[in-house]
Structure formats: structure tokens, C-alpha cells
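Researcher: Watch the backbone:
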Amino acid sequence: MDVQRHSVHTLVFRSLKRTHDMFLLNQGTLPPMDLNLQKMKKSVKAKDSYGPILERVKHNNIMKAQNENENTDPPPPGDECFRGNNDSAIVSYNPIQNNVVIATQANSGGNTVNNTLLIPQKKTPSMAKPKWHPPWKLYRVISGHLGWVRCCAVEPGNEWFATGSADRVIKIWDLASGKLKVSLTGHISSVRGLAFSQRHPYLFSCGEDRQVKCWDLEYNKVIRHYHGHLSAVYSMALHPSIDVLVTAGRDSTARVWDMRTKANVHTLVGHTNTVASVICQTAEPQIVTGSHDCTIRLWDLAAGKSRATLTNHKKSVRAVTFHPSLYMFASASPDNIKQWKCPEGKFIQNLSGHNAIVNCLAVNPDGVLVSGADNGTMHLWDWRTGYNFQRLQAPVQPGSMDSEAGVFSITFDMSGSRMITTEADKTIKVYKEDETATEETHPINWRPDIIKRRKY
């Protein structure tokens, strides 16, 4: 016997029709409501919600009964109507005092006893009013590099700053005038990270050529190389109080170097993808790294081991930065910016709204956090409340394409009053606070209940 062949569409349709016919008779016929079950459900729910209150009421009534030598029983906890034979409980809400008032009346032998229990209602925590910050405006554009400008560092004296670029050159600029002072050549690929020593006349640089160099700025020459990375080095940081250098890159590791002996003291292993950003501080955790594996790791510098792994981000973490005075740090990812409390990395709050690939973060002592993205947008936030008080779009230079609007790094100078950005249109831009702005001319467009935040 030949089996008749049908198309998949026909077979699916037949199956659906049979299923429909099978359940058609039962459609709309729910089982009858069981009153006893409903009563039991209410009783259990009431006991769960108001059990402690009823226990308190019961205790008060027993104490009253003992004092007055009465043999009255309190209402059984869980009774759905909260009433016994002789007792009644009345629940009322006082909107003026924001309290729930539970009054119990025990009626026995013609006597009335009133017990009032005040339960303060919890207020919904609302966002604190953000501090007013003057808006920032562009006041200088510096040209000179022939490739994407990837990194920037300001020297401790606040007189000049250095930038590294995809043209393989490090340029040092006068901060006040914006004029070029010197160009340093030596890298054979894009320069990705720069750091000035606080105690020595040294500049450290790293790049996609796997090289980490130490430049003596009195002679403008390389005096040390740190060999060990297996791939491009993307980020670097100097420890504030000891002569230690930390570098991180595409080989999924961060490496700790003795600045003088060039020894690789620790190799911090644990990330499973590129380590995009590394930062250092004196207090614990002394090293924090952000990686493309969507995690942040807090490291014990003495042991060279990971203390904690923060997995809250859902996309690659490209930037991390410490607050200059608070014991906190922030991290940036395309999903959002997050704030954390040291030393254990306790999550504080999300800063949402910068919907782009965020490449860099910086924060100044005044509590202004800035995030810069691949599409040239910069968002300025109030650190304490997470309020986004300004949004900037970096202007693309003439001759550049709109796609070259990316902001690769943001650095505040030592005073925190100037902000330097390095960008994909081969320029360096310097921003200042608008000195003419006041709270009246630029009011905060803020509503108190926009964001719920945690206290810290």
C-alpha cells in the first residue's frame, strides 16, 4: 500500500486542526470555584502578611486580660476577617503622619480596651538633588598627528602633556599655549598608552608593537625596555607610591614590572580576553582591570592574585577609573556605566543613557565624570547622583569623515579645570568650564524621582 505524501505545510495544518478539535469542547469551561479553598488561601495570605502584627496584638490582649483577670481569647492569627467573637482589629492608614495604625478593641463584659500599634511606613528612596556644575565648552583644537590619537597623559607639574598616536609618534605639547615642544620616535606601531612618573623625570609608553618603553625626559631617549607581553599592549598605569609599573593588553594578562630592574614581578592571569584598561591606587585593591571578557577584576598586588571578579557588565569593559578622593571607581561598557565601592567592589549604581561603545572615562576632584564614545559623543555626569548634566558631540575636523568622530581618551589636567580629549580625526581637543554660566542661566533640568539609587 502506497503512503500518500503530503507537504510539511499540510501536515502541520492537519496537526493544528486535530489539536483545535480536541480542546474545543473544553474551551471556556473552568472548574467551579471552591469556597473553602478560597477561604483557606485568604487565611494563609493574611497570616503571612500580618502574622507579626497579630502576634503583637495577641500578646497585648493577653497582658490586658491577665491584668484585669479576664479569660478572653484573642483572635486566632490567620483568620481571614481578623475578628474573633469578642475582639475586633481595625487597620487604618494615616496619610498625614505616613503611618499604618492598627487599633484593637476587646469587648468583654461591657469594657472596651484600645491598643494602638504604629508601624512607620517606609519612604521610597528618591534620587538626591545633584550638585550644579557649569557646562564645559571646547576652547582649543590641536593638530599635528598623522594618525588616530589614542592616548594622553599630563605631567605632574601641569605645564605640558604627551599624546600617543597611530602614526607611531609621541608628541609633547605645552598645556597653556597648545604648541608642540618635542616629538619622540621609537615605537614601530600605534602608541596605545602613556604614563608620567610622579617622582622621576620619566615617561612610560606602550603600543601595539608589544613594546613597553621608559623615556628619560631630560635626554628625550629610551632608557629601559620591559619585555614579556605576547601581543599588543593597550593600557598602562604607574603605582602612586612604589616604583611599580602595570601594563595590560591583548594577551589577556596584566603584568607588574619593577620600574628599575625591569623584572616581571607578577603576571596577573585570569581574564579570558583582551584587558582593555588597568588602573592603580595606593589602597586596596591596588590594581583594577577591565576586560573584553565583560568582567572587572580586583587584584592583590603583594600576592599577584585576583581578589574579586565583578560580572555585572554584560558587554566588554573598555575603561575603568578611580575617583581622586572617594574610595570608589567607575567602569564603562556599551550596556552602561557602573560605580563601585572599594575594597570589595560593592556595586553602587548604574549611569545609563550613553548608548554607544564607551572607550574612555575620566573624573575630576569636583565630581564631574566624563565618558567618551566611538561615535564622538561625550556625556558629563554628576558623580554622587549619576545625573547626566551635559552631552557634547565632538566636532569633526574639515577633511575628516563623520565616521572619524571617535573619542579614544579623556584626561583631566592636574587642577581638574581642563579636559583633554584625543580623537579619531587626528586632533587633540581641550575643553574648559564655561566661566560665564550660572545656575540661573543653565538651570538643572532635574526631577527628583527619575532614578532610584542605593545609598553609600
The helical segments are 8-24, 35-67. The longest strand covers residues 99-108. DSSP finds two helices and 31 strands in the chain. The CA atoms of residues 337 and 351 lie 5 Å apart.
